[in-house]
Amino acid sequence: MATANEIVDYAMPLMNIERMAKEVYGACLVDDLRTAEEFALKLGVEVRVLQATLAIMQNKETMR
Q1: 0.90 exceeded by the pTM?
Q2: Alpha-carbon distances of 61 from 7, 15, 48, 54, rounded to whole Å
Q3: How many C-alpha atoms does 15 have within 13 Å on its Cβ side?
Q4: Which member of 3, 11, 27, 51 lies 3.0 to 4.6 Å from 32 by CB, making a disulfide possible if both were Cys?
Q5: Average pLDDT for 22-44
Q6: Which residues 6+ apart lie within 8 Å of 36 measured at CB?
Q7: Are 27 and 36 in contact (CB under 8 A)?
Q8: Domain ranges of the chain
């Protein structure tokens, strides 16, 4: 059974990416490009979090 330290959650970054992409889209629709840019920056950060999470998961798979 996995402990809390062994569980790597990829779902939360994916949900955050989806939400932020919708925010970027919504801001673009109403021509609020400053807000869209702000969300796009945060979206990029969340993508990097997901990339790191997936790399950790991949490393755990190869260690088994």
Answers
A1: no
A2: 12, 23, 20, 11
A3: 4
A4: 27
A5: 97
A6: 23, 24, 27, 28
A7: yes
A8: 16-63
Q: What separation in angstroms does the CA of 5 have from each of 8, 9, 27, 41, 62?
A: 8, 11, 37, 29, 18
- Return the sign of the alpha-carbon dihedral for residues 52, 58, 62, 64: positive
The answer on pLDDT for 1 being more than 50 is no
d(C-alpha 2, C-alpha 64), whole Å: 13
First to last CA, the chain: 14
**pLDDT score of 42 more than 50:** yes
